[in-house]
Amino acid sequence: SVKELKNSLDRSYKKKKIAVMTSGGDSPGMNAAIRAVVRTGIHFGCDVYAVYEGYEGLLKGGKYLRQMQWEDVRGWLSEGGTLIGTARCNEFREHWGRKQAAYNLISEGIDALVVCGGDGSLTGADLFRSEWPTLVEELVKDGTFTADRVEPYRNLTMVGLIGSIDNDMAGSDSTIGAFSALGRICELVDYIDATAKSHSRAFVVEVMGRHCGWLALLAGIATGADYIFIPERAAPKDKWQSELKEVCQRHRQKGRRNNTVIVAEGALDNELNHISADDVKNVLVELGLDAKVTILGHVQRGGTAVAHDRLLATLQGVDAVKAVLEMTPETPSPLIGILENKIIRKPLMESVELTKSVATDIKNKDFDKAIMLRDTEFMELYDIFVSTTIKDDGSEMLPVTQRLNIGIVHVGAPSAALNPATRAATLYCLSRGHKPFAIMNGFSGLIQTGQMRELSWNDVENWHNLGGSVIGTNRSLADADMGTVAYYFQKNKLDGLIILGGFEGFKSLKELRDNRERYPVFNIPMVLIPATISNNVPGTEYSLGVDTCLNALVKYTDDIKQSASATRRRVFVVEVQGGHSGFIASFTGLVTGAVSVYAPEDQINLAAIKEDLELLCENFRHDKGENNNGKLLIRNEQASNIYSTKLLADVIAESSKGNFGVRTAIPGHAQQGGMPSSKDRVIASRYAVKCVNFLEEWNEKNKGVDADTKVLRFQYDVHGEKRPTVQHEDDSAAVICVNGSKVSFKPIAKLWENETNVELRKGEDIHWKEFTHIGDILSGRLRLRAEV
Ligand code: ATP
Description:
Elements: H1 2-7, E1 17-22, H2 30-43, E2 47-51, H3 54-60, E3 65-67, H4 95-108, E4 112-117, H5 119-141, H6 147-150, E5 157-162, H7 178-199, E6 202-207, H8 214-222, E7 227-229, H9 240-254, E8 259-264, H10 277-286, E9 291-295, H11 307-326, E10 334-339, E11 342-347, H12 348-363, H13 367-372, H14 378-390, E12 405-411, H15 418-432, E13 435-439, H16 442-449, E14 452-454, H17 457-460, H18 482-491, E15 496-501, H19 503-514, E16 526-530, H20 546-567, E17 570-576, H21 583-592, E18 596-598, H22 606-622, E19 631-636, H23 645-655, E20 661-665, H24 678-700, E21 714-716, E22 722-724, E23 733-739, E24 742-747, H25 748-755, E25 756-757, E26 762-763, H26 769-778, H27 781-787
Parallel strand pairs: 1-2, 1-4, 4-5, 5-10, 6-8, 6-9, 7-8, 12-13, 12-15, 15-16, 16-23, 17-19, 17-20, 18-19
Antiparallel strand pairs: 2-3, 10-11, 13-14, 21-22, 23-24, 25-26
Bound molecules: adenosine-5'-triphosphate.
Adenosine-5'-triphosphate (ATP) binds near residues 55, 93 and 121.
């Protein structure tokens, strides 16, 4: 009913006047955040203002505070930087400046402020809020306002969003813009790699990060760098030079043709002396290398936001408005952050203080504490970098009895991060003294040729940025000939298996585990790293390759929207992959500002299409021409047996009565995305190392020990050697999963039983459900319904 539809707008909150601003250094994704704040605010019945030019605009007031309408933010998702401007403003550091800002806000009747910026901006925001009652009191005392006039403004509602490419805020895994900057860095280092290899050169690349090494660390992992310099792990004075030389030389001896060293702008030695890119270069020159310096500079900030940042900014912008509406005067100002996959709220003040204490810890040379205060992954990623590069000198090898033969197999359609994951697993195995074996061309390759290739450092060294699968992948499952698979497992004395793949990989793991009683050789720990662009592996919210695919789709849709803006009044029905899972479609819809998403989880029917048509007409009615940059409808390939992409386009075109043209666009295999994205490369490394640790733990801690009797169990291998085994029914066959803010290993048997929709080849949990609701808010669908 109309009443129900009206309720969907949820106007139960007290109406607020919300101002949104960006401050400090610009970062890609800020526009997506502003768009989300503006539209969500309007959706909930609030007036939303943009503060132009950061705190400077807050001080100046007047035309710098502009009310935003729904249409004003159309097309902003694809724009880099910040369209409302940003600035550094020294006057805001002064009490009088903040008093002036308070005057301007009260004059406009604004009672809530959403600030998107780095730690400096948020420190200013926090100070402003805590000082607010005093500022208001002063404005009454000096006769600027009457007490009655300021009564509704006794408290300022303040919410912080972290817009910063540095990713330096404590309590959040990533900040708006950080992954875009990382993506840019990796793209550029990839280019440098090609020329460096040609000339057999060493390159020292300086990246941004005055106080934070996140960009340098992640770029180090993602670009396969030899060495990194970051402020939180200060290099030992007078010693780093020899270690750097040793590492680069060792890698050359192993066969590497180039060297890459990433230096954070704020790199330090442990006596707090700055280490510059030139200092590093000079050391490499001493080694006899042809070394060059590249300082990436402001290109790192530029360009449009990657898919990750568009989503992060959108979800956080929506949550910022919800926080504004839910807060009471007693609620401490929140900072909206993210942990793994979950949007969280943290007390703004605490996070800012923690962030600042990192700088203090560095100043006090307490580097261990500094690194601990970074996000949850930082330390782990640092250890991963060290153990796969600096410590690949044999110093981290396990005792001979604990060294394993580890098989690695790719199953199913390729996704972008198969090679980086295999590389990281291999490098980590080699550092630990294990032998990594690539099962060539999937299980059918093994069955047909028996080929298992022992991988060397040199084999995998440059796989960090390769898409596809060097060792080959195949859709066939192990059950095509389980006996033969078992034979080759035994022949190569595998102690553990890493499977990389999507639903086929998932099924293979289940089959291998189910066949343990028949083939005791499968009594080894086995683990699946979900890797598929469909993101349909049960139990997890993320599969490798998804980020690359989403970036490819964002680029693709940006391009076709551009083409539509030239021809005007054009709608594209874009068909995306995902099998029976609507994740990719829903995500793409949200980060490209699609008018509608057709996912397999929803029914496409005539009523839905009719509503889409109304929304399209409404959209075109309000378009001002110049920002008429094409409308998108995203359809998952399996969304309906009847309403094909073509039929949908035809129906909409026919009903548009010539109002607009409709085209279909099918990116097909381009969705695999070529080179893996920086985020996929980093997650690939993280999961690969975690999985090798999982295999080690099951081989050591739990090996052959019967849970009840504590008696060791053995089996005899093909050479007649007695080998301890894991047990069929234990949890040693598992999938590495991320759920909300938690990464864990889930046993395949339980996953299969409780979380799998076998028929539709996906998980039961639709973890992206909220995308649909948020998409409906931001596309204006819910407003339209309420106006019916
Ligand atoms: P980036 O991460 O790019 O450095 P940032 O937000 O940390 O971004 P800053 O230059 O530190 O950038 O701060 C931006 C603005 O925030 C300053 O120009 C100033 O107006 C305000 N600001 C920063 N620190 C304070 C403070 N302690 N008190 C009041 N205002 C501040």
